[in-house]
Amino acid sequence: MWSLTYLIANVCGSVVISVLGYAGDEVTPTWVLAVSALVLWGPFIGVLLWTSKRHGSGNVVNDFSLRFQAADLWGVPLGIASQLVLVVVVTLPFQWLLPSIFNSESVEKRANDLFDAAQGAWIVLLVVIVVVCAPIVEEMVYRAFIQHNLGVAYGARVAILISSFWFAAVHLQLAEFPGLFAFAVVLGICFARTKRLGLSIITHVAFNATALVVMALTR
């Protein structure tokens, strides 16, 4: 189900970018990225809604544990620490061993490109996409959907490792893989411990927001 949805989503996203005339461009405008993101996320949201209706209660909030508590605010320092410390520490050995692949420019390229494409008021749209929408959709897909079902079949530890590998690999950036995998493990543990998405979503929000803040301060 995931594979078919991923294929459809990426084909649709590629078609949209091509139709808008930005296929192959080094820097894609933020509004094009926003349209593309909606097209990419649409099929996944559709699958979640279908799964909830077909195999759950029909209530997406309950079926995918989309609940929050005050304690979930601990995700703010956890997300900031993951971005500023965890990713750096985990990526460092790879930079020593394979500097041509895991250099800082390659690791930060995606974030830099996104920030450079956002000019003026478009930064607000970038924040909405990266800081708000992406964490919610990705946590519902990779933690509440994939990790949960893997956990039922293989146990919590295996589910965390597989879903974390899955999450990091699907970003299709080798230079980012170690850091994203380590961060995904943190998100997986948050979900496994709390049995809800609140903590992992807020941690993910803080992680992405910190990346944008760092980009802004270093420009």
What features would you describe in this structure?
The protein is mostly helical and 219 residues long. The chain has 9 helices and no strands. The longest helix is centred in the middle third of the chain and has 33 residues, at 122-154. The N and C termini lie far apart (41 Å).
Properties at a glance:
single chain; mainly alpha; 0% strand; globular
| β-sheet strand percentage | under 5%
How is the main sheet built? none
How much helix, percentage-wise, in residues? Answer: over 70%
Terminal CA distance: 41 Å
Q: Tally the structural domains.
A: 1
- Shape verdict: globular
Low-confidence stretches: none
Radius of gyration: 17 Å
Roughly what is the average pLDDT, rounded to an integer? 87
User: Counting H and I runs of at least 4 residues, what is the number of helices?
Assistant: 9
How many beta-strand segments? Answer: 0
Write the layout of secondary structure elements.
Layout: H1 2-19, H2 30-55, H3 60-63, H4 75-97, H5 104-117, H6 122-154, H7 156-169, H8 177-194, H9 198-217
Helix pairs in contact: 1-2, 2-6, 4-8, 4-9, 6-7, 6-8, 6-9, 7-8, 8-9
